[in-house]
Structure formats: structure tokens, C-alpha cells
Amino acid sequence: MVSLTFDPFREMDRLTSQLLGTSSSRGPRWMPMDLYRVDDHFVVAVDLPGVDPGSIDLNVDGSTLTIRAERSVRSDDSVQWLTQERPVGSYLRQLHLGDGLDVERIQASYDAGVLTVTIPVAERARPRRITVEAGSGRTAIKPQPGGDRESGRTVQGEVTSS
Q1: Are 38 and 102 members of one domain?
Q2: What is the pLDDT of residues 106-115, one digit of tens each?
């Protein structure tokens, strides 16, 4: 499983700075993201519009995935700012990864301002079907009509001896 790191104090500071218009380019900024599971992998989609792909740094240290990125301000001497609402500076997000994930096979791509990180579930943590064999002296489970082994629901049946 994946857990998110949320610092309520950092979020309150960010909202206060936005409200008062005192936000500075110092310190890492928070980046919005979506996290969902598809089959045997998790997908993290992080909004990073206007970020140079070369500034994106993904790092796994133990069970922590760290995403860093940098958005620079245009620094031409001829630029006269009329308004500057898009935040610039460094962005940071950390995810704590569970034991059941394959951190060696994490993949990432950046397209249209969205960083997509795919985290596969480790083979040992995937659901699997266990076959029940019947033989002399062993018992077998006979599914009753209406039972459904494939969907992961409880299979109703009776136990018989051979």
C-alpha cells in the first residue's frame, strides 16, 4: 500500500501566504496529485505545469519515494511583471511505500505538465489462486452451483472424502 505524507502546518502556512499575498520562493512547495490502483500497479499523477522535465528528480530511499521539481521564473532584464500568480521555486512530495510494492520496477513519464509514476505491486503481494488437489486420503472441495472462485468472493461447497 501507499500512504501520503501530509503536514497540516505546512498547508496552513501555504494557505496563509496565499491569502496575504506574502508567498516567497523559499522552501519547497506542495504539488497536487492523484493516486489510484489499476490491476497490479499503483499510479501517481502529479500536476507540474511549466516545470522543465530536466529539473524533476525521483528518488527511492528505503520505503520513501521523493519527488522534487523546480519551476524557474523568467529572468530576462527586459521583462516588466504586471502580475505573477504562478508559484515558482522548488516542489517536494514524499510517499511512503508499503512492503508489497516492487520499488525496483518503478517507471515515470512526464507529458503535458503531468508526471506519471507507475509503481508495480510485488509478485509476492499479488492475489493468487491456490489449486486444491484431490487424491487418496485427501479431501477435495466441490463448489456448489452459484459459487464464484474467480471474483474473490466466498465459495460455498461441501467437503467429501475420497
Answers
A1: yes
A2: 999 999 999 9
